[in-house]
Amino acid sequence: MIEVILVIIVTLIASILTLLQEDLLKVAILSGISAVGIAVLFQILLAPDVALTQAIVGGAITPVFIALAIKKTQRMEGE
Amino acid sequence: MNYLIPLMVIFPIFAALLINLFGKHNKTIKILSFIVAIILPLITLFASYGLHFFGGHKPLIDTNITGLPTYITSTNLYSMHPAITYSFTPLTKVFIFIMCIIVFLSVFSYLTSEKKASGSFLFLVFMGTAAVSAMILSDDLFNMYVFFEIAALVQTGIVIASKAEDNYETALKYMILGSIGGPMLLLGITILLAITGSVNITDIAIIISTVLIKSPISKAVVLFSFALILFGWLYASGFPPFHVIKSSLYSKSESYGSSILQAMSLLTLVAFLIAMARMFYLINIFNGAILIVSIIAMILGVSMAVMQTDFRRMIAYLSVGELGFVGLGFGLGTKFSMTAGLFQGINEMIVTALLFLGLGSVVYLTNTSNIRKLGGLISKSESMAIMVLLGGFAMAGVPPFNGFRSKFMIIHAALLAGYPEVAVIAILISIATFFVFVKALHGIYLKPQPNDLEFVHDSIPKSVIFSVAVLTIMCLILGLYPEIVTVPISQALGGLII
Amino acid sequence: MMISTQLLCLFAAGALIIIGLFAAIFIDNIIKKVVGLSFIEEGVNLFIICLTYKEGGIVPILAPGMNVNWFAQNAAYPLPQALVLTSIVIGASTLAVILALTMFLYKKYGSLSAHEILNNKYDMGDEE
User: Is A58 at the interface with chain C, CB within 8 A?
Assistant: First the structure.
């Protein structure tokens, strides 16, 4: 039970922190952390195949997409 | 021939991929897409009615397995659909056939009026055809959701592929709104899955009407999922609050694209509306919610259309207003009114395609769509001007065209159902539509030609005139013999809505 | 009241959806908006997976030699898990399209502000 609560807290805090960053690269990384947290929750909820997909797509591919978009645009939010 | 039913979805997807493969060879994709566009309506014509179970997994009640225990045979489990089911009825036949005709005419005019055909545009067109056909065929909510997302991506893609200015902004806006609407729809479907254990619409309808409606708690859950699905439906079909983005979507694409886009959103609307009516018709606020949304859509559509100076946006808003009539038919809740609403949907699809293609020729000639800069175009092509005028009459509901028949049926149904106010609103909206249309037509064709008007092309391609003529004839035929469409629709509705 | 794993995860899913909706509606920066949209997707996915969970159950994979009846009684519900796989892929592709559009529009406007890019200038009818 305690590990579930811990994972949920990490996920939610990571997702809230994502939205508070000025540096958009940190946004990409923190969104990856929250996606991996959700993947762990999937594993706990007896869905290992979904957890694998979520870890790859949400934890690696999506942050890379966002990071690429930031590289082509701007890194700081308020420029 | 039941195996033609999945072919209606698989064939256009396969053709789209093939066309994308040959994207660089101009001549090849032109011939290929022309052939595909001819075959598409033929498949619909030759397929026979019935159900198709993917993987052959029939419900247990239809198989000859004997000796099952009583805890299966005595419960809903016995008649549950385990596979994705496509059901092909006269209703779906009419809608998919007309959609395919519109796709054929649009692709035909596209191929002949553009020197270089774009492989990605044709890919999107056929992918969209497959998506909306699947949506209206499918009896499976999750399958509908997947194709809903594909249709949203395709609509964005068609806008991106056009040459209109500000199209990327519109596409981005539509995608962002879609990323809110899509998950909400999925959430609604999931809640239904959680309380019924199935994503098949027939199963859900039986379980809701026999069990869930009886207890107030489960009824509240059903109501919540109805609200979420309604939100997704509003987004997909361009009802308020999404009418602005939907109509800018239509006006930011090429005329061939917009005629397909509006047909796509109409089929999405009809597919989800029928699904919702089958599942939620026993919930007492279902009819009221659809009715209110439709009336708001009608009023907002026409009143925003009055203010426009860009005729493409004007037609786009008018078509959103016309969609309100379709919802009105379902909101009134009788079988007659639903038939009228679906008939109006078919007419709307044909007439709006006619207007987008016909007025697209104006953009082709002058490269502008601002009414103030235009005028005197009747000298270029009298036949096109007359056909567009007739199309406008059909949209506003002037006899003997199809719009008159369906609007008359809706008003009649409103009076029969005891809503004279709705009938009055519908008549007023029709008059306003007529007024808006006459104003636009005067500005484009009859007003003296401004001196600074420059022409890009000298004449309209024959193929566009042919396409518009075919659509006009279809309007006239449906106006004179509405039984061609209304009889199959009312037959199919009798079986669908319990 | 007993707090179960399922209830906690449902709460997390609801919180994620609300955080995502907040970001999508109120935050101006498009990249952050997009991240918020992906949170909505992930929240909905988590919600679906929560429905399949069975307290003390097993993973719905039938290993050889397992008793089928026992498996059917104890396994989690596999249908929604299959649906979520599709949903994750759809979410990723939608996100890719939005980011590509954002990159293109950045070249035109030089800004990532949704207010500057998506203002309603062409929704009012007349531009002149």
Answer: yes
